[in-house]
Structure formats: structure tokens, C-alpha cells
Amino acid sequence: MNVTSIKGFRDVLPDEAARRRAILDATRGVLESYGYAEIELPLLEKGELFQRSVGATSDIVEKEMYAFEDRDGTLIALRPEGTASAVRAYVENGLTRSLPVGRLWYSGPMFRRERPQKGRYRQFSQIGAEFFGRDDAAADAETLCLVADICAAVGVRGTRIDLNSLGDAACRPAYREALSEYGRLHASELCTDCCARLERNPLRLLDCKNPGCKAAMSAAPLMIDHLCDPCRAHHDEVLRLLGVAGVAVTANPRMVRGLDYYCRTAFEVVAEGLGAQDAVGGGGRYDGLVAALGGPDMAGIGFAFGLERLDLASRPDGDDLGVAAAAVKILMAPVGEAAAGPALALARRLRQTGLRVEMESPGRRLKAQMKHADKIGARFVVILGDAEIASGRATVRDMRAQLDHASLFGLADDATAIVTKLEQIGQFEQR
Ligand code: HAM
Predict the structure, then answer these.
(1) Whose CA is nearest to atom 9 of ligand 1?
(2) How far is the centre of ligand 1, averaged over its atoms, from the C-alpha of 401 (Å)?
(3) Which atom of ligand 1 is nearest to the CA of 305?
(4) What is the predicted pLDDT for the residue at 240?
(5) Which of 108, 57, 111, 48 lies closest to 259, judged by CA?
(6) Which pLDDT does position 430 carry in this prediction?
(7) Which residues pair with 301 in a beta bridge?
(8) 282 lines ligand 1 (CB under 6 A)
(9) Which of 205, 235, 296, 356 could disulfide-link to 165, CB 3.0 to 4.6 Å?
(10) Element (DSSP H or E) covering residue 88
(11) How many Cβ atoms from other residues are within 10 Å of residue 14's Cβ?
(12) For residue 304, which atom of ligand 1 is closest to its CA?
């Protein structure tokens, strides 16, 4: 029996890895243009961190977290998200004092034991950003500008930003009560999960995908109609600023988030063509969280994109062979054991000029090596057979012109002089 991977844990093959790298590079560029600095956070945290932030009654903590007891009895969790860790790090490292208005970003794997399907995995990667120390509407608007600019830079197709306000500690408790009151009246129409949510986490009633629950909740009260004056003013100002900045958002008064730390602004970025798991990113404001994790009373707002979903929503159509390597410009073709050493040494020197050089096997016939050069799309093949080793000069095949150049350069020639010779026989980009 073969040992296979664990359900929901997938391999990222070279084609996808290359696209992920490009997405990460594009995203990093936009984040840095907004003044965000990178932070690296641990994969393991104390379980308590997520209980106190994401919420002990949230699905993520209650049902999906990979948690276990460490050898010393501490409850440890594989991080299901990055915000809690970022806030912990911000407080623990004294950044609340040294960087009272701070913009941090991170990326890496997260773990949630959800039911795997297209775009939903048990290990997935996020690119996240957190903006600390500002509670004004301009910070929310700036964050949404950043979200829109990342989508554009990555080339996500058909995005829509759904926006809602979840109120705050002043207005949400009364709304929560009104919502569970409504839910209780419709309890007989709700699924068992929603019945359990009624008292513990009623906001999630709005989020259930079950058609019966959807119908039952269609006339439920909405947070947006129950905002207190300051929350209403904040929300209106966010909308006004987004209009001025030219960022289009869609009001979605039924959108709630799966994490409990949010207040006021909450948003989700959905992309077309992704099926059921169409949220490529999500985020919102979390003004009480820094204090809840032992820091000062400090505001925060942020978001995270799912890297797998960004890839699904931006990749070109067509087959994914999963094997494309970085474009190799030169195939080093040693024919016979005597050529192996000189070929290795020459290939190394050429790579130092920045060229991509792949070395063939000295045991293979030249014809087979040439076939491989065709397959990988090499621009030139440097042939080192017995004659070349004897004369100390290489033969180069220009693959585009299908022409051999005998004795083109000496094996001991300076590497940059060799590159110049190659440029003379045929145009090529080095990278
Ligand atoms: P989230 O909405 O739970 O928010 O996750 C953000 C994104 O991660 C989702 O929109 C989705 O693209 C991706 N994602 C989540 N779960 C999975 C999964 N099982 N498989 C594949 N992709 C997934 C957060 O995690 C918050 N920490 C965002 C945030 C930052 N809020 C404030 N700051």
C-alpha cells in the first residue's frame, strides 16, 4: 500500500507554485506601496489565543481547529488564521508603544479541519494585512483601497467587494437579542446547527447555507437597521470616502463573518467562477481585540486573502500540466564520461552570470539530449563530446536557427565573453 497525503492537505506542483510566487510578489508590491512591513509569525500558538479572539463558540475554534496537548500539558493549536497571532505579536513585542500606528503583513499556511472541496482545504495559505492604531473611517477606506488594488495587481477576474457594518459593543447586544428572538419564533424551520446557534452565536443564523434556514431568516432584522449613531456615522463616512477614492463596494446587510472579533466595518471579496467557495478574501475592523489580548485599548482593521482562491480566480484557462520548470536557456550536453567534469564546471560558471543552465546526463546519446532540449525549449545547446574535449572548444547549437557553431568558444574562456559570443550568434534574453 502506498502512503498517501492526508485528506485536505495538498501538494503544490511546479506550475501552481510558480503562479503562487507571482501572486505573492504582486501582492507584496502593493502592500509595500501602502507602507506595510512584513512580519513572520509561528505556525503553532496556544489554543487559548484563538478561543479568546476568534471566539470559543465560533465554528473555527469549536469544530475546525487542529489542537492537541503538548508534552507539558499546554493546549497547542495549529493556527487557523493570522490576525490573532499578529495581535499577540504586536502586544508581546512592545510594538503598541514603538509602532502605535502600525501596518503589518504576513503570509503562510493556515489549518482548518473543514470539509474539503474545490477551493477549500485543510491546509491553505493566506496573505494577510493588519493596520493598528487608527479607528477613523479613512483607515477603513484606505484598507479597502488596498484590497481593490491587490485584486487588480493579481488580476482576479470578476471581483465584488461586499460591505456591511456589524455594529459595536454599544449597539450589537440589543440587535443580537432581537435576532435570537426572531430565530426562536422560527426555530421549527431551522437546522440543528442553527438551533444550537440561537443562543450562543445568533449572528451566524444569517450565514447558514441551508435553504430552509435561508427562507426562515429572509425577514430577520438586520444589523444595518440597528446601528447606534456613532456606528452609523462611521459607516456612512466609509462609504463616502470609498466613493471619492473610486472603489466600488456592494452593500450586503446579511454578510456576517465567521470570526467573532469584528466590529463595525466587515467585508468579503468574492470572485466569479469559483463555485460555492467564492470568497477570495475577507476582513474587517476589530477595535476591542488588542485590549482583549492584554494590550492597550487600541483599534485595528485588516483582511486576508486565500492564496489558493486567488490562484483559481486569476489563473489562465487551460490545462495545468503541473510540471513546467523555470525557462532554461542553455542545455549543457556532455557526451561521454570524459565530458562530465568540464561540463559541470562550465555550467556553474555560466550560471554565475545569471543564465539558467540545465545539465544533461553524460551517459545519454546526443540525439536523446537534443530531444530533451526541444522539450524544455532550450535556446542553445552547448555540446561537449570527445572532439570538443580534445580541442578544448565547445560546439553550440542554436536551437532556433537549427545551426551548429563548431569551436564557438574555449572551455576556459571568461563566462561573460562566452555570453557575448552567444548573443552574437542569436538574440536571447538571459532571464
Ligand atoms: P477568513 O474569512 O476566515 O478571515 O479567511 C480569509 C480567506 O482565507 C477567505 O476569504 C478564503 O479565501 C481563505 N480561506 C479560509 N478558509 C479556507 C480554506 N479552508 N481553504 C482555502 N481557503 C480558505 C480570516 O482569516 C481573518 N483573519 C481575516 C482578517 C485579517 N480579518 C482581519 N484581519
Answers:
(1) 281
(2) 50
(3) 7
(4) 98
(5) 57
(6) 59
(7) 131, 285
(8) yes
(9) 235
(10) helix 83-92
(11) 13
(12) 28
pLDDT at position 372: 95
pLDDT at 428: 77
Residue 279 in contact with ligand 1 by CB distance below 6 A: yes
Q: Which domains does the chain have, with CATH numbers?
A: 14-168+227-313 (3.30.930.10), 172-226 (no CATH), 328-425 (3.40.50.800)
Closest CA to ligand 1's atom 16: 120
Average pLDDT across the chain, whole number: 94
Q: Does the CB atom of residue 156 touch ligand 1 within 6 A?
A: no
Question: Which one, of 163, 418, 191, 346, lies nearest residue 265 by Cα?
Answer: 163
Among 419, 344, 329, residue whose Cα is nearest residue 389: 344
Q: What is the pLDDT of residue 426?
A: 87
**Cell numbers representing residue 205 in the block:** 443564523
Q: What's the pLDDT score for residue 317?
A: 67
pTM, two decimals, is 0.90
The amino acid that residue 23 corresponds to is: I
Which residues of the chain, if any, have pLDDT below 50? 321-323
pLDDT score of 327: 67
What pLDDT does residue 323 have? 47
Question: How is 225-261 classified by DSSP, letter by letter?
Answer: GG--HHHHHHHHHHHHHHHHHT---EE-TT---SSTT
Q: Which of 137, 170, 192, 149 is nearest to 281 (CA)?
A: 149
